[in-house]
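A common beginner's mistake is to predict each chain separately and then try to dock the pieces by hand. The better habit, illustrated here, is to supply every component at once so that their relative placement is modeled jointly.
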Amino acid sequence: MSQHTISPEITFAPDHSGGTKAIWRTFIILSVLTVIELIIGLAIYNIHKGEHPNATLVLGFKGMVCILTLAKAYYIVSVFMHLGSEVRNFIMTIIVPLALFIWFIIAFLWDGESWKNLRNTNGGSREYKPATEQQHVVPAKTEGKKD
Amino acid sequence: MSTTAIPAGTKWWNGGRSPFNSSYGKVMMWYFLMSDAFTFGAFLISYGTIRFSVNDWADPNHVFNSFPFAGHANLPLAFVSLMTFILIFSSVTMVLAVHEGHKMNRKAVEKYMIMTIIGGLAFLGCQAWEWTHLLTGEHVTLMHDGTLATLATTVKSNPWGVAVPHDQVLAALQKTPHDQLINIVNSLGHGGAAHHDAAAMSHDQLISTIQAADLHVNTVGRPAFGSYFFGITGFHGFHVFSGVIINIVMYIKTRLGHFDQRGHYEMIEKAGLYWHFVDLVWVFVFLCFYLI
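With all components supplied together, the output reads:
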């Protein structure tokens, strides 16, 4: 061990004898995933440019980018931040609270969807108005100019 | 992943040793980052809620399609990919600095810290350019009162609503007041070869100049777009900024030999955790604002 003990409370020193191969491999994985994301992003752009964008296809592509992003997050946290080589109990104290996000995302996006539904119908006690009339009005004179 | 075997029957929770086999500082850095992840997560989810709740939202490929020195070329995703690669690469140099720290290799740590700092500054420079471009780039917009005006993308104004058909643009042009026509003609000259002396032109000349230009006009978009974009990328940019400051402090401490005296480079590791977290957040900001 080329390094002095950081603290007497640490039972065993993590193994740092490996080379930089894992780092460069992760860098290549992250770059490739990013390039795939960009290709999908440009595909979405081209679908939107077309006459009749296929909503299901766009949604599928967007889902794929989300999965690729989670894969990138896994590699950054596990290899670059070395969480993968920590003690299992410690990993769990980080990962388990973050699982709350699963519910947050479902709940709040669902709420947004419901809100949109109310906006476009006679939801509750409010009368429906076309989308253009609901927008926040920005007066031309004050917002249109720079000083 | 660790190859060191944990002795069988180790009493992790009986005191005298860290149950997580880690120093206090590192454990607390992780918990800080976890709480920071919740802050960013809350911002991004709130953005998602608003975006789901409205009928129209700015298309990122139209808003973020420019590149420095490329003029008006339509290059969606290009600049932001550059920013992403800068940040990923600075993450790599950071992890290499941590790696050299484990080997007590002071010169190499210094080298990689310098590279990481440069990467961070390059990212901040890119963000400054992007913000300036959005905040100062004026776009002709159909206002709610039926006139045309020039709007920039700010926290309060958003020129990226729904595309307006050409005949409606011509109708709106007739209702647009003289001073706004001057603004519009000035915005046409921006970056182009033809510089018009708009203030000296007559009302009809202004209108015919605008008609001759191939204008892409949108309605006024949701102000929430700019608020969320500048709010979240600003909060992330502030993290990058503080990360650069932390890395500079770490570089100076490395140079002064503090870590050699201490016998370990754990501070580099902790600063590295923060820096990787900044990269991690950018991965999600990139997803939420630019890709989908």
